[in-house]
TrEMBL record:
One term of GO molecular function: DNA binding
SUPFAM superfamilies named among the record's database cross-references: Periplasmic binding protein-like II, Winged helix' DNA-binding domain
InterPro entries according to UniProt: LysR_HTH_N, LysR_subst-bd, WH-like_DNA-bd_sf, WH_DNA-bd_sf
Family: Belongs to the LysR transcriptional regulatory family.
Pfam families: HTH_1, LysR_substrate
Protein name per its UniProtKB record: Transcriptional regulator, LysR-family
GO biological process assignments: regulation of DNA-templated transcription initiation
Keywords: Activator, DNA-binding, Transcription, Transcription regulation
Ranges where the HTH lysR-type domain occurs: 3-60
Length: 320
């Protein structure tokens, strides 16, 4: 018996709901009809897709594998339909972008504003994610485009470096001398090996920024005084501003607060500490017309905010 698209849609609805009755309500079909769809699908595949219990249903190992393939097949079908339905002149469809906190702060407003203005039929979703989760969301099809700080080889994803960001030591107002112009906003520098003189509040070890900083510190043989670990950038900024401890963040994350006198910051030197920013997407699944348009807009917006100083960073090595 062949497996049809309706059966895959029913399967995914049950997997998402964890219950055949709840999935039936979502799909607006009778529960016995949905149960029959799942049974026929299991017979066609020759495997059990769900474990049943009084609490509901849960995908088996085979069901988990089939869920990945079913999502991929239906996503590709959506892209194919969009490709033949609309041209670039009037793209239509859903597009999801995954952005880290610091970049969501800079890019969300101009991107959302332009998508609404240019392409009213595009349903844009901007999802704020820790960068460690972005590759997984791309591979599962939950987002179409992402920005992250690491390139993962042989991951099924395409990574293009677009920006280099400087990391800075951040403290309360007045701890470090700030410059007087937008072009030269930081007057103080701190050597990397001297970071151990400052009580620190940093993201936890698995956080992308912390992993990058730890790599620099290992090369210098430096151990830090870490008071606490906090992953959220707004809370790190608030703690530094209150003088609870210093932290290390990208200058883009704190430039507005530094210019307003709510924080002070110093450049890290000998060596300077920077992080690359990568634009990433699936290496195997083609983007829809709508997602391609948003990808071009994202690249255009990055160049604009770099040029006008809204994002104080440098164009990456392979941005062209």
């Amino acid at each position: 018996m062949p497996v049809d698209l309706r059966a895959m849609q029913c399967f995914l609805a049950v997997a998402a709901a964890g219950s055949i009755s709840r999935a039936a309500e979502t799909l607006h079909i009778a529960q016995p009809a949905l149960s029959l769809q799942i049974r026929h699908l299991e017979e066609a595949l020759g495997v059990t897709l769900f474990m049943r219990s009084h609490k509901g249903v849960e995908p088996t190992v085979a069901g988990q594998r089939f869920e990945i393939h079913a999502r991929d097949i239906l996503k590709r079908l959506d892209i194919a339909c969009e490709d033949v339905r609309d041209l670039m002149v009037d793209p239509e469809g859903s597009v999801a972008i995954g952005l880290p906190q610091s970049m969501a702060k800079i890019l969300t407003v101009p991107i959302v504003r332009e998508v609404i203005r240019r392409w009213p039929k595009v349903r844009l979703q901007v999802i704020e994610l820790s960068t460690g989760y972005i590759p997984g969301h791309l591979l599962s099809g939950h987002i179409d485009i992402g920005l992250t700080f690491r390139a993962h080889a042989n991951s099924g994803l395409q990574f293009d470096q677009i920006v280099d960001e400087d990391l800075v030591l951040v403290g309360p107002p007045g701890q470090f001398a700030n410059g007087h112009t937008q072009a030269q906003p930081l007057a103080d520098t701190v050597r990397l090996r001297d970071l151990n003189q400052y009580p620190m509040i940093l993201p936890a070890g698995e956080h992308g920024l912390r992993a990058l900083l730890d790599g620099y510190l290992r090369t210098q043989g430096v151990d830090l005084q870490i008071l606490a670990e906090v992953n959220a950038i707004p809370e790190l900024i608030a703690l530094a501003s209150a003088g609870v401890g210093c932290t290390v963040l990208s200058y883009a994350s704190v430039c507005a607060e530094v210019r307003k006198g709510q924080l002070s910051a110093a450049r890290i030197c000998q060596p300077a500490v920077s992080r690359p920013v990568y634009l990433c997407r699936s290496a195997t699944m083609p983007l829809s017309i709508a997602a391609s348009a948003v990808l071009d807009l994202l690249t255009e917006t990055v160049r604009t905010v770099l040029d006008d100083g809204s994002w104080p960073a440098r164009i990456g090595e392979v941005a062209d």
